[in-house]
What we know:
Number of strands: 6
CATH topology: Nucleotidyltransferase, domain 5
Shape: globular
Helix content: 40-55%
CATH class: Alpha Beta
CATH architecture: 2-Layer Sandwich
CATH superfamily: Ribonuclease H-like superfamily/Ribonuclease H
Largest sheet: 6 strands, mixed
Radius of gyration: 16 Å
Order of helices and strands: EEEHHHEHEHHHHEH
Number of helices: 9
Number of domains: 1
Strand content: 15-25%
Amino acid sequence: MPLDFTAIDFETANASNASACAVGMVRVRDGRVVASAEWLIRPPAGHDAFSEFNTGIHGIRAADVAHADDWSTQLSRLTAFAGADVLVAHNAGFDMAVLRRACEVTGDACPPYRYLCSLQVARRTYDLDSYRLPSAAAAAGFTGFAHHDALADATACAHIVIDAAARAGADDVAGLAAVVGVRVSQLAATEAALLAVA
């Protein structure tokens, strides 16, 4: 099996995990970045207030997403890009919570993606003082990116996994997880998602 996966990064408007306001995605095939996509998202109603704290991190404001597609509209675009890939994210618990919660509040089916956390992989691969994305990416040889830009972060995440797999001698995501001792987890399918595939 080749090293195929999609790296993903969400930015949020506020403390609510449902408040996705941007996504960046990077497709990896056979250990190489082959495609990327990013877009702004209008967060779901009731979760669409932009906090100064979050805007201070990523620079996205309410006016920036006023004419962006909402979560329900862009979810099919996200799933079309990722296909059946394992999703990889740095601190994947956060990004998977965004995916799950945004689907919950909009009533959309949450796809039952398998996922791997590049933060956990980095902790088992590198000896660093900090495993934050910039530090882990630098250890993988990927530097100088705009941290908290969704596409830049997804790209950095992809490079961590590519480098870690090379160091581990792993041919695919499952092999990397096994060698470094982490799990490939899976989002629980919602009832709507199960009906969609029935």
